[in-house]
Structure formats: C-alpha cells, structure tokens
Amino acid sequence: MCGIIGYTGSLPCRDLLIEGLRRLEYRGYDSAGIALAEQDHLTVVRRVGKVQVLADAVASAPSCARTGIAHTRWATHGQPTEANAHPHLDCSGTIAVVHNGIVENHAALRRVLEANGHRFRSETDSEVLAHLVEHFYGDEVPLEQAVAQALREVEGTYGLAVISSREAEKIVAGRRGSPLLVTLGTHEAVVTSDVHAVLRPHQRVVYLRDGEVATITPTTLQVRELDGTEITPAVQELNLEALRAEKGDWPHFMLKEIHEQPQAIANTLRGRLDLEDGMPHLGGLRDVERELRRARRIVLVACGTSWHAALVGKYLIEEFAGIPADVDYASEFRYRNPVLDERTLVVAISQSGETADTIAALREARRKGALVIGICNVAGSTIARETDAGIFTHAGPEIGVASTKAFTCQLTVLTLFALLLGRQRRLSQSLGKRILRELQSLPELVEETLSVVAGVQELVPEFTGVNNCLYLGRGYNYPVALEGALKLKELSYIHAEGYPAAEMKHGPIALIDENMPVVVVAPRDEIREKILSNVQEIRARRGRVFAVGNAADDELAAQSEQLLVVPEAPHYLMPVLTVIPLQLLAYYVAVARGKDVDQPRNLAKSVTVE
Ligand code: M6R
After folding, report:
1. Is residue 78 within 8 Å of residue 69, measured between CB atoms?
2. Is the separation of the CB atoms in 378 and 329 below 8 Å?
3. pLDDT digits (tens, 9 = 90+) for 87-110
4. What is the tens place of the pLDDT at every residue in 506-539?
5. Which end of the chain is more exposed for a tag (fewer CB within 10 A), N or C?
6. Pocket test for ligand 1, best of 193, 257, 351 (most atoms within 8 A of CB)
7. Which atom of ligand 1 is nearest to the CA of 352?
8. Pair 553, 541: CB distance under 8 Å
9. Nearest CA owner, ligand 1 atom 7
10. 509 CA distance to ligand 1 centroid (A)?
C-alpha cells in the first residue's frame, strides 16, 4: 500500500529517496513520485508503474537538493495515472505533499477551495491537502503551523509529509491513523511510513502518534499536537540490522521466506519453552496473567492470512483451555456492535501490525472495556504499541506480499498461547510437558516437510491452465484449505475457493468436473475417514483430487492423482506442516504463469486503509 519516504540533511537526496522507494516496493503500488526542494524551487517528477521508470526519468536531471519527499501510491481515489500520483502540489507549485490514508471529507473541502480559486489537477482525495496547506500558509505563518491548521479541517486518516520551496531545509509530517516515523542521524533525518525504507544508518527513532505534527530539520525535531501544544518526543533505539531483509540468491522473497520457516519457528519458540514446568514463558503477557485467568471468552480478530491463523487459534484455545473462542473479521467487528465485557479477551493478530481494520477493531474492543492482546510480527508497529499486552511472532521481516512464514509463526504463537491458558485451567503438568516437547520438534518437522518441493513441482502443469480450483480440509486443516486457496488466487490469479470438506455437498459440488482440480488436505487424524468419503464424492463426479497427507496412506494415495506427503505430527501442529505444500504450489504455479510473485497486482503488504 502507499509508502512515504523523506530526507533532510547534508547529502544530496535524490538517489537516496529513489533507493527508499525501492525498499517500499514490496508493499504494493501502482505509481511513484518524488519532490526535491531547493531554495525557491521544487522539482517534481511522477510516473505510473515501477520505481525504475521514475528512476530513469529523474536520472538525467542533476539535483543537489538536500531535502525531499517521495511516495509509492496504491490507488484508492482515481486511477493510477501520472496526474493522480504523489507528490501533489498547491496552485503556486511552492508546496508538495505526499499522503497515505483517506481524506473522507475531500469532496466538501475541494468545493470550498475551488470556490476560493484553487485549481485542482487530479482526481485524488490527497490533493486537497496541498491546497489546504496553501490556504493557511503565509509570510507570517511557518509551514508547520499551516499544516496543523489544515489538518484540523481533515476528517479521515493520514500519514503525510510536506515540503515547501520557501523553507527548503524542513519537512513537516503529521499522523492520524496511518503510521509514520522519524529516524535521527547526525545532521540528517528520515521520515517514512515503513521502517524497512530507512536508508541511513540511524540508531534513534521517534514513532509519531495520532494527532501529532513533527517539524523536521537536519538538526532538530519538534513535535506538537494539532492545537500547538509542544510534546517531548519519545526517542527509542532502532536496530536496523534486525530489520534488513536481502533476497540473496533466491529468485523471490516469497520462496526465501517459505524456506526460512524452520528457522523462523525456532526463533518464535526460543526461550519460551519451560520443559520442567510444562509452561510456556510468554514475557509479554506477564503483566496480565490475572486477567488471562479470569477470561471467560476469547474473540480473535484479524484479516486475510492472519484471520486464517485465528481460525486455527479457535480450535487450539477451545481444545487446550476449554474457553469459548470466536473469530471475527476485523472489518466486520469494528462496525458491528460486538458484545464484550471485562472478562472477554480480544486477540488482535497481524503480521504488519498496521492493518487499518485490525487497529480499528482493537480500539473498539478497548473502548468497550475488553483486554486486548496483540500477536504481531513488527516491533514498534501500531498494534504492538496499542494493545494491553502481546506476543511477538519473531518471524523476521516478511517482504513477499503473500504471507508465509508469518502465518506458521502465528500458529506457533497461538499454540503457546492456548497452552498457557490451558495450563492456567485444566491441562496437567505432564500434558503441558508433552505439548512443549512436541513443539520443540516443530522446526525439524518443518524442515522435513520442505522436501515436498519436488512433488509440488511435478503438480504444477495440472494447475497452470485452469480457471478454478477447490481446496478442502476439515477440523484443524479447514483453515489450511482457506489459506491454500488464498495463496493460489492472490499469486496466480486463478479463482480458488477454500471450504470445510463436508460443506462441499451443500453447493460447491455442482462445480466439480474433470477440469477443476480439487486439493484435499487429509493428514491421518481422527477426521480422516470422513474426508475420505468426501474424496469419493468428488471422484464419483469425475473430479481430480490432489491430496496432502501422510506417508503410507495407501487409501488416500489410491484416490488421488498425487499425494504430497508431510511428516506425521500431533494433529494440532499439522496446519503448520500441511500449509507448506500449498504455499509452494501457489508459488510455483504463479511463476509458471509468469506472474509477479512478490508484488501481485492490486495487492499491498500492509493494508493501511479500510
Ligand atoms: O499484516 P496483517 O497480518 O494484518 O495483514 C493481513 C492481510 O492483509 C494479509 O494477511 C493478506 O491477506 C496477505 N496478502 C495474505 O497473503
């Protein structure tokens, strides 16, 4: 989704900003632009398409500008055109603005501004910001004051950065609902919406909070509220090394991240298994232990792949702890009137920690008095900061838009969390010890599972030419079927549906014929017999079954075109393994169809608008 990068300091910044934009590419975007400030002059270049197109366009124009802002746009209001790309300018070409988020009252503001003589050049909601700032800006009014006045008129969300050719050594940044941070170096500063884009070796960071406006110069940072009240910014340490993600020799980040799963899960588990007590150690929950013991109900909220992890979480929590658990799409939860009380625990799950709907859901839950726990991958993210307590997944940076290692690490964390709740209630110490021992072997099992690659590659020709696919699973593997289908559709643009296998006969069975592959996830567990009946029903209609199951399952092998084998494991850990062949299948099918695996069309890594 949209990304912001800005620099002010002692270095010429054009190429730095282009490099920053490259680091934002993984988020998904459709156009990009840059504005460079020199005394009394702004240079603005915008292009549709990849950052490389913009880089080529600016390459021929030498620039010594030491202050600038740049943006990758993911279209919301208006098509991906050059005119709609950011930065947007005011009428006089003095002010440039880059904006993430949505100005909800843009139409009303635009009408007023147009009536006052402002000329608009784009269809975007964001352009009103440039004209609004222009409206308040004057000889007596510095840029930060004009920005604050403008933002007081805005309804909606924003993370924005503004420069002016009249104050060419300054960036003004503001945040409401869309992340923004400032990193500080010696005689320079970077402002960005995504810590991955920080392009200088800075060790200090300030995460702006909602309603704050920062005035950034190479040597100073001043933060105020919209009414002008000055705030002492909380400067934190920044470990950029830990955030760096390089593709190395891998063809795509996604493939690298799939293969990183054994290590990522080992990192998730590190220091958290107390085999003596049969208790997981979750330091981030220590302060709320009493509330966890009192919880009578759990609601898990998330979006996309994290929502699938939440579905597995429900099974785990109900099985281990006997606490009723519900799973809600964050986007639905936030606009319903959810019934919550102080003994309801809300668990917000998110890789990025910046998903707008999940943030809104957790805020609503807190307003209603529920305790909110975050399960999230990115330290310093909004969800990590706004939840009452939490557990980091420690999956490491995930750059591929399709979530893979973050998902399996979320499942690992949810297993630990359910075990903790269970041990607080009905699970014996010996059972706790057994589960922890089984968890300990998970990285090895995942490693073993990755040897399924060759089998998956053989399967690819069966999928590359099809238009539709069905994924079926039951119990713990029903969310895996949903996740497999999501992976295939988001990467290869093949329509794919995930279903609980038994639901097939209530409708989707009408679709089955020899042209639609059906992927069945059926490891050897208590419910396998049932799913074998579903497989028979598919075959009776000339459907072609591709199965994920365990070795030496002759019956399943006989009923399917191909059986992808995953190792034996306790049923509650199975989703971590069965999802891997499906991640690989989606990856190799997308590659075979020539799709952009790491940045699929229309998608964004973190969805910061609702
Ligand atoms: O960062 P989050 O986990 O909150 O993101 C939620 C979804 O946007 C995300 O999982 C999305 O569905 C991915 N593209 C799935 O691969």
Report:
1. no
2. no
3. 999 999 999 999 999 999 999 999
4. 988 889 999 999 999 999 998 888 899 999 999 9
5. C
6. 351
7. 1
8. no
9. 304
10. 29
